[in-house]
Design goal:
single chain; alpha+beta; 3-stranded antiparallel sheet; 2 helices; 52% helix; rod-shaped
Length: 95
C-alpha cells in the first residue's frame, strides 16, 4: 500500500513515502513538506494525463523511445548483414 493511497497514473511510478516519490531509473523527487508533495502528486503522478508533463516522466519516455529506436535499427542492421552473408555464400563456388 502506498503512503498517499492514490490511483497512480504515471507508468514510471515505483514507490512513495511521506515526502518522496520514486520513479523508474532511480529518479527520486523529494518534497519540502506534505503539502507540496500532495500538490505535485495530484498534478502529475496521480493525474490521468498530467504525468506526461512531469519532467522525470518526459525524460524516461524519451529514453525508452530512443533506446527502442536504437534497438530496432540495430536489429535491422544485423538482419541486412545476415542477408549479405547468405548472398555471398550463394555466389561463392561450392567446394
Amino acid at each position: 500500500m502506498d503512503y498517499w493511497h492514490k490511483a497512480w497514473q504515471c507508468p514510471f511510478f515505483v514507490w512513495d513515502d511521506v515526502c518522496r516519490v520514486c520513479c523508474e531509473g532511480k529518479c527520486v523527487i523529494n518534497f519540502p513538506d506534505r503539502t507540496e508533495a500532495k500538490k505535485y502528486i495530484e498534478l502529475y503522478c496521480a493525474s490521468d494525463g498530467g504525468w506526461k508533463n512531469c519532467s522525470a516522466a518526459r525524460m524516461l519516455l524519451s529514453y525508452y523511445e530512443r533506446t527502442q529506436e536504437e534497438e530496432r535499427r540495430s536489429r535491422a542492421l544485423r538482419s541486412r548483414e545476415r542477408a549479405l552473408v547468405r548472398a555471398e555464400k550463394r555466389k561463392s563456388p561450392q567446394k
